[in-house]
Amino acid sequence: MPLEGTDMAEFTMELNDEQKEVRDWLHGFAADVIRPAAAEWDEREETPWPVIQEAAKVGIYSLDFYAQQYFDPTGLGIPMAMEELFWGDAGIALSIVGTGLAAVGVLANGTEEQIGTWIPQMYGDANDVKVAAFCSSEPDAGSDVASMRTRAVYDEAKDEWVINGTKTWATNGGIANVHVVVAVVDAELGSKGHASFIIPPGTEGLSQGQKFKKHGIRASHTAEVVLDNVRVPGSCLLGGKEKLDERLARAREKAKQGGERVKNAAMATFEASRPAVGAMAVGTARAAYEVALDYAKTREQFGRPVIDNQGVAFQLADMRTSIDAARLLVWRASWMAVNGKPFTAAEGSMSKLFASETAKKVTAQAIQILGGNGYTREYPVERMHRDAAIYTIFEGTSEIQRLVIARTLSGMTIR
Ligand SMILES: Cc1cc2nc3c(=O)[nH]c(=O)nc-3n(C[C@H](O)[C@H](O)[C@H](O)COP(=O)(O)OP(=O)(O)OC[C@H]3O[C@@H](n4cnc5c(N)ncnc54)[C@H](O)[C@@H]3O)c2cc1C
C-alpha cells in the first residue's frame, strides 16, 4: 500500500520543476551555510546549534519540510533532500535530520494525538530549537536487535510504563528534548515483542551516559542513554495499548507457526528507511568526487594537469559511475517504499549497501587524487572519508544488508 495520504506515482528518474526548486534551495543552504561551518564543528565535536537554528529559520529544520518530502509520491523528496544536505557536510546534516529520523518513528506508529503532541516538541521553534533522539541500540544488541534488554513493564494501577535499561550510540541521546525508546514488552517474541515509547522532556530517571568521541560525523552528538526506573504515562506508548495487545497476540500466533518467519519479517521493516541512509552516502560521495575532479583538472605535475593521466582520469570515471549507480538504486528503493511495492529482492538494503560502500571507496579515491593535500585537514576530503565510514555501520552494517538480501533472495535462513 502507498503511504497514507499519497497517490501512486510512476517511477521517474527526473525531478519535477517543484523538486528542482527545492533541490536548488537546499543546495544553496548546503553551500552557503553548512559547508563553510563543516571544518569548525568537526574539530569542536559538538552539536552545531547555530546552524540548526539557521536551518529552522529558513524552514529546513521543521516537521513541515520533512513531512512534505516524506509524503512526496514520487519517492524522490527524501533522497534528494538528504543528498543535498549531506553534500554540504555529513556531521552537520545529521544534526539537522537526526530529529526527522526520530519523528518518522512517531509519524509511522503514533496516534494522531501523539503526533500532534510530541513532534512539535521534538523540533521546538526557530528561537528555541530542540532535537530528538531515537534509541534502539544497546551495548549487547547492535545488529542483533532481538537480544535487546531494556524492559518496559506496565503498571496497570497507575496506567504507567516503567522502563529500565541502557541504550547506546543514540544520535542526540541525552541532549534531546524528546527521546523515542524501543523496549522489550514480551521477551518471548524477539524483535516482535518490542514497543516504542516517548520519553517526555525532563522525565526523571533518564540521563546521558558516555558521550562518544568519534572517527567521523563529529558534529553529530552520539551518546549512551541510561533509563533508571523511568515512568511514563500509558499515553506515551506509541500507537496505544490496544494496538500493542493486538499486535502481540498476532505475533504469538505466528511464533507458534514458525519462529524464523517472525524474525525475518522484523528485518524487512527496515527496508523502507534504508534508502535515506543510501542518499546521505551519495551526498558525501558526490562532494568528494567534485573536489577530486576540480583538483585533478588544476593540479599540474610533469607539465600537465594530473587528470591528463589515464590512471587518474579513469578513477574519476569509475567514481562518477558508481555514484550515479548508487543514486539510481536509492531512488528506485525510495519510490518502491512510498508506493507500497514489495521489496522482493530487499531493494532497500541493496541501495544502502551499494551507496555506503561507494561512499567509502570514492572518498578514499578522492584522497589519493589529491595526494598529500588530500591527507591533510586543509582540504575536506579527509573529513569526508572519515564521515563516509559511518554509512556502512549505522541502520544495519553492510554485512547485515548482505544477510537480508541473501535471505530475501533465497528464502533460506542464511547465517
Ligand atoms: C555514529 C553512530 C550513530 C548511531 N546512531 C544510532 C541511533 O541514533 N539510534 C540507534 O538506536 N542506534 C544508533 N547507532 C547504532 C548502529 O545502528 C549500530 O552500531 C549498528 O547497528 C551495528 O551494531 P554494533 O555496533 O553493535 O555492531 P555489532 O552488531 O557488534 O557488529 C560487529 C561486526 O560484526 C558483524 N556482524 C554482526 N552480526 C553479523 C552476522 N550475523 N553476519 C555477518 N556479520 C555480522 C557486523 O557487520 C560488524 O562488522 C549509531 C551508531 C553510530 C556509530
UniProtKB/TrEMBL annotation:
Cross-referenced Pfam families: Acyl-CoA_dh_1 (PF00441), Acyl-CoA_dh_M (PF02770), Acyl-CoA_dh_N (PF02771)
Keywords: FAD, Flavoprotein, Oxidoreductase
InterPro entries: Acyl-CoA_DH_CS, Acyl-CoA_Oxase/DH_mid-dom, Acyl-CoA_Oxase/DH_mid-dom_sf, AcylCo_DH-like_C, AcylCo_DH/oxidase_C, AcylCoA_DH/ox_N, AcylCoA_DH/ox_N_sf, AcylCoA_DH/oxidase_NM_dom_sf
GO MF, any single term: acyl-CoA dehydrogenase activity
Origin: domain of life: Bacteria
Domain Acyl-CoA dehydrogenase/oxidase N-terminal positions: 16-122
Cofactor(s) demanded: FAD
Residues covered by the Acyl-CoA oxidase/dehydrogenase middle domain: 133-230
Domain Acyl-CoA dehydrogenase/oxidase C-terminal residues, every copy: 265-409
Family: Belongs to the acyl-CoA dehydrogenase family.
Protein name as it appears in the record: Alkylation response protein AidB-like acyl-CoA dehydrogenase
Lineage of source species: Bacteria, Bacillati, Actinomycetota, Actinomycetes, Kitasatosporales
